[in-house]
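Q: What residues go here?
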């Protein structure tokens, strides 16, 4: 009984910390993906002589500038946006570049 009580206390202390670490890791992964998308967009724009406001799609930058289409670690979707505008994630603006 005492062992179960001690395990419950340890689990109660450790679980929130584990969830926080998991959330932070997902946010960092999302931020890294957004950065890769931005760099691929910039390279595509330079090579194709595009200017701010021009439209770009994921098909334009994958597979030539990105190996594959990045997926959000927390289940969101990425919006590439136009040239000159940073890409965004549907799971929040806290992953800004």
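A:
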């Amino acid at each position: 009984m005492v062992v179960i009580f001690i395990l419950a206390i340890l689990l109660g202390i450790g679980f929130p910390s584990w969830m926080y670490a998991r959330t932070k890791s997902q946010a960092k992964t999302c931020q890294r993906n957004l950065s890769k998308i931005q760099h691929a967009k910039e390279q595509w724009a330079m090579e194709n002589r595009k200017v701010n406001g021009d439209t770009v799609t994921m098909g334009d930058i994958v597979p030539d500038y990105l190996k594959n289409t990045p997926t959000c670690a927390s289940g969101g979707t990425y919006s590439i946006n136009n040239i000159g505008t940073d890409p965004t994630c549907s799971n929040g603006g806290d992953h800004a570049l």
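A: Context that may help when evaluating the design: Residues 43 and 49 are 10 Å apart (CA to CA). Helices lie at 2-47, 58-61.
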